[in-house]
Amino acid sequence: MYDATNVREREMPSAFDNLTESAIFAQRDALADEYIPTEIVGRDEKKEEYINSLLPVYKGENPDNVFLYGQNGVGKTAVTHWVLNQLRSSENLQTEFQALHINCEGINTSYQLTIELANQLIPNSEDYLPSTGHPESKVYSVFFEQLDEIGGTALIVLDEIDHVANIDTFLYKTTRAGSYGDLSETKLGLIGISTDTAFGENLSSDVRSSLRERVIEFPPYDATQLEKVLSQRVKTAFYDDVVTDGAISYAAAMGSKNSGDARMVLDLVRIAGDYARERGKDHVTEELIKEAMDEYETQRSLSVLADLPENIKTVVYALAVLEERDHEEITSSMLYERYTDFTQIIGQDPVSERRARDYYGRLDELNILDSQVKHDSSGGQYKVHSLNHSTTEILSALSDTVETIGVHKSVEEMVDQ
C-alpha cells in the first residue's frame, strides 16, 4: 500500500544534513587512545632499550621476559605496539613470530587469564573454553597445546598485569613451560605492562627466580616531548594550520604539569577541536584549550570520585545533601554529623573526626570539594566546605552510594529514579 507519509519523511532533510561544519578535523580518530602512529616520537631512548630487549626474538633465540613500568599516558602500550610491528615487518627475522595481546582489566584470576588466552588461539569458536567448569590443569593443558601449535616464538603481552590478583600461578607455569615439557615447539616470552612499580617485588621468590625479567621504566613526558607527540598527531588529525602554535604549546605545558600524560594532552586538543567544529570556528586556539582543560578537569574529578572508597563517597553525598538543604556555610562539624547519620542508615562504623578531616583534605586536592579556613569573632579558626561541581553531576558519580543509603528528600528532583 502506498504510504505518502513515509515518502514525505524521506524527503525531509536530516537534522545532521542542516549542520554547517568548519573544516577542522581531517582524521579525528588519530587522537584516540587506540590509534598507533607509524612512528613514535618523544621516546627514542625507550624504543632503543625495548628493541635491544627483544633482540633474542629477532635472532630466533629464547626470548627474555620484559616488564614495562610507568604512569598512565607515558607511551608504554604505544611503544609496545610499535616495536612489535617493527619486529613483524623485519625481512631478516629469524623465527616465526606471533604476539598475543590482552588487557587484564576485569580479569581477576590466573584461571580467567589462561582461558582468555587459550580462546584467542583456538581456531573455532564452538571449541572455546567456558569461563568456568574445567579444572585448572585442563585449562593450562589446552592453552599450552594451542600455543605449541604456533611454533617459532610467541610473546604474550599482558597490559595492566597488576589487575590479576593471583598472577603468580600464571607466571610460574608459563615461565617454566619449556623446562617442564609443556612446550616443545614454541619459545615463549612475556611482556608485562603496569603502572605499579612495586609489582615485581610482590611476586613470590619462585616466580621472580624463573621470570628474570628485563625492566624498562617509562618516566613522565616533559613539555618538549609532549609538544613533539602533539605536533605529530595534529598533522594527521586536523587540516593544515587549524591548530595554532600557541594552542599546542599551552596543551603540552598543561600536560607536563599533570603527570606528563600524553593521553590528557590529546584529549585536550580533541575537546578543543570539537568546540571549534561545533561553534563554526576556523582555528583551535589557546583559549579553546583552556576551556577544554576546565571540562577535562571536571570529568576527571567525577571519574575519580566514582572510584573512591565508600566512606569517602558517603562524605561527599552528605555534603551534597547539606548544600541542597541549607544555604548557610557548611562547617566540618555539620558535615561530620550528616556523614555519621548516613553510616548509621547502612550499618557502617563511621571513621573518626580526625580521619574525616583527612578525607576533606584529599577531596580538596582532587578538586571535588573546596575547603576554606574562616575566622570567628573570638579569633578562632574553622573550615567550611562546598562542592566544586554541580549537585547533579556529583549525584550521578555517586549513583551506587545514593542507591545504598537512599535518596534524601533534598535531592529527590536531581536523582534519576
Task: Describe what you observe in this structure.
The protein has 417 residues and is α/β, with parallel strands linked by helices. The chain contains 17 helices and 7 strands. The chain has a 5-stranded parallel β-sheet, with helices on both faces.
What is the average of the pLDDT values?
Answer: 91
Pattern of helices and strands: HHHEHEHHEHEHEHHHHHHHEEHH
By CATH, the topology of the largest domain is Rossmann fold
Helix content: 40-55%
CATH homologous superfamily descriptor of the largest domain: P-loop containing nucleotide triphosphate hydrolases
How are the strands of the biggest sheet laid out side by side? Answer: 2-3-4-1-5
Q: CA-to-CA gap between the ends?
A: 43 Å
The SS-based structural class is: alpha/beta
Whole-number tally of structural domains? 3
Determine Rg (CA atoms, Å).
Answer: 27 Å
The CATH class assignment of the largest domain is Alpha Beta
Based on DSSP secondary structure assignment, what is the total number of beta strands?
7
Major sheet description = 5 strands, parallel
